[in-house]
């Protein structure tokens, strides 16, 4: 039997032990330092992250921990068309619920999640990582197909169709032009 290697430390980590959460809510601020921002930019394949700040409220409920607040970030994303970096501002409200990790038996059955199930994070070892939750929230707030200010010009230069031309109505318009 071999010893398993420890899990890598998240780039942005702020561990809170459950014993630190009392009957009244905790509030605070998380600000990513330069090293954390560079590591997250690498993880998320971003040209750069200039700032990440989160104001939060953490409250214990009967069988869950409520983690709510805002995240603000200034960063650069690469345009999906031109590849050129352009500035992006993220201002996101989050509402995350931490619940104790449970073992789910393996099954071939599909599991359907409701929208309210999507912001649930499991914890174990009587601690939660607020920093990793903030990092995941930031990632989910990013546009998966970002279009920079020069996207249309780059698309035209490379012969790519616009969304209107490539869509079903664009195909009908082209057919109409051919039929005359």
From TrEMBL:
InterPro entries: YceD. Pfam families: YceD. This is DUF177 domain-containing protein. It comes from Parasphingorhabdus cellanae. The lineage of its organism: Bacteria, Pseudomonadati, Pseudomonadota, Alphaproteobacteria, Sphingomonadales.
